[in-house]
Amino acid sequence: MIGLKDKEIIHGLAYKAAEIAALPIQDEKRCLWSRLNALKPERPMVIIDQVCWSEINADDDLTLQCEDEGCRGYEWRLRSMLYQWEHFPADMVVEPFFRIQKAIGGVDFGVGAEETILKTCETSEVVSHRYKNQFETMEDIEKIKFPKVVHDAAETARRMETAEELFRGTLNLREEGYDPYISVWDPISQWMGVQNALYAIMDEPEMMRALAERMVACYMSLLDQMEEQGLLCHHQSFIHCTGAYTDELPAPGFDPAKPRTKDIWGFGLAQMFSTVSPAMFEEYEIDICMPLFARFGLMYYGCCDPLDGKMKEVRKIPNARKISMSPWTNQRRGAENIGRDYVFSRKPNPAYVADHVFDEELVRADLRETVNICRENGCPVELILKDISTVKNHPERLDQWNKIAMEVARG
Q: Which pTM does this prediction carry?
């Protein structure tokens, strides 16, 4: 039984969110994102995401007050969204609905990370990992199990019933299905350790190819089950920290009760391949993962992995639309290779908000360089500040970065 205090807290926050969601600017921003994603942008788009929230709560705006654990989860989502809208909204869109996650189980491959973790700060989300290698022989590949997706419909109904009581008269509610994150090598890096995995590709190429192919088969099975059971998400607002609004999805024949992968965006990456050759990247990532990439309506590809020198290989992905350009890319080479064919999804260096002194002119010059390079090459561009490990306990730096970035984006 949820107490009256918790109900009042959630209802009050949701009411504020509903007022913001009703503002005309939300439709304006959806339109701007759609134009960017159609490769016909009006201007660069800007988002701040993956924030070091443990350093942000200077004025107790984010302090949770609910007692019920489920309510605290909803409260956090609402408080952090309202804080961001107030302080560093950039081009975020506040939706007139609140997503309630379906109770989906079995989304795993039977293997967990065996690791040692080091922390520099107990409240920080950023920690150091040292992973134990669990894959040393061909026989070890059998440790990876095919997922068996199950939906607890009764639990989903309970969540919706509880949420309807909490949110009544404020935000609409939407059951949220599974939003695919397609990475073969991120899990492998956690099961083996990056160094071990990279050496194994050289020393045991057949084993590593078989390992990757096993992962692809598991993902294909997972997605098939999600489709069959009607458990995929649809009409995404975000795809990897960027606006996902588009007039090109869902595909013809869409049924909201049974979304298909071709109705949604997919997200792929191979971060541990940052330092491998284009040929190895093509052989072990692009070619092996192509059956996964090809089944989505649109693809966002890349994350921290620098892709400026691997665009020939990335271009093999038939439905790619946004390509990550991390802080470690040669921007000019990346823009020349992207041209007008994809969104240049620039990740400005988060170190600029983490230094001992916040240098506004350095931030402005960095962002202007990106915009100018993209303008010269005709690239649609978005500026996505993410992976923010610290702001040196100066949360106002995100407000300042937001202001500068929007000035640059608007010219």
A: 0.95
